[in-house]
Design goal:
single chain; 315 residues; alpha/beta; TIM Barrel; two-stranded antiparallel sheet; 10 strands; 16% strand; globular; binds NADP nicotinamide-adenine-dinucleotide phosphate
Length: 315
Amino acid sequence: MRYRRLGRTDLEVSELSYGAARGATGTPKQFIATVHACIDAGINLVDTATGYDDGDSERVLGEALQGHDDVIVETKYRPYDGWAPEAAYTGSPQALIASAEESLRRLRRDRLDIFLGHGIRTLESYERFMSDGCYDAMVKLREQGKVCFIGLSELSEGDGTHEILQRAVPSGAFDVVMLTVNFLLQTAIDSVLPLCKRHDVGTVVMMPLNQASPQSGLVSVPAALECVRRHVAQGNLPDAPPYTDPHLFDFLQPHSIPAAGLRFVLAQRVSTCCVGMRTPERLAENLQVVDPPYLDAARQTRLRELFGSVRSQVR
Ligand SMILES: NC(=O)c1ccc[n+]([C@@H]2O[C@H](COP(=O)([O-])OP(=O)(O)OC[C@H]3O[C@@H](n4cnc5c(N)ncnc54)[C@H](OP(=O)(O)O)[C@@H]3O)[C@@H](O)[C@H]2O)c1
């Protein structure tokens, strides 16, 4: 495993990190086995949230991480009444502090390594978060030592061009951001990543495989072609070759689609690529495919030419 610096936190984080959004409720033993396999492989950052599996993600992680205090845990407070881009803002400093306390209890820790505002989705709600006491409460938690570093995650389904992070990163208010980068949504590469470098903000990439389902996303050729078809249907890509060609992705061989997807992300200037994996076998697959130089210049250029114009996320 290779490690990269997480911006101004000065933490050295594994370049692959573990996204713990799914699996804790239905298959807790498998979830714990996957966490332990990650640790054995050198992964030292795990991303969770109060909202994942209704708190079970944090709760089962707390069990899995007993005796592993060195693993960096990132968790989040979601100041909205739902997951949808149009969900109403419900943030308050009291709720944020209560959420952090609950996270500490469920994770069985006396400090949260990284604490993020979760899925910030409109500029208006970002401004409210910054001015209604929520941001001040995060800073206070950091001063009290209950939280080490603070940041935001975005909701790329609602903000494909990262307007919020383009405002948040230069403000200097945050140590870390969680953002979407994958070869079907590349907008952050030229907009947010250079800002993060300039302001020394750590970057945890989410959805490197475009939050794939078996039907659509960067997990197989049919699923990737289906995602391209959905982009064409929405007018984001032309209804013409090569986008309509079933051999569109042949140039990526010998890499599989998920391997090329992870390699594309790791080839960018990001701190860590956080991938959702529900089994140790899935982890083993991904560990095999992420050696430097990750993805050669010709394939990267072709992916930039093909999908660099996409401005919104489609799953
Ligand atoms: N706004 C936010 O803050 C936000 C939003 C989304 C995600 N996140 C975080 O980012 C993490 C990663 O994002 P994500 O899980 O949504 O999406 P993702 O990592 O792009 O995709 C995860 C899916 O890819 C599959 N997969 C992984 N490796 C594979 C391989 N080699 N071959 C085939 N399939 C493979 C997984 O399958 P299996 O499950 O079957 O292993 C899973 O269904 C999340 O777990 C979460 O921690 C944060």
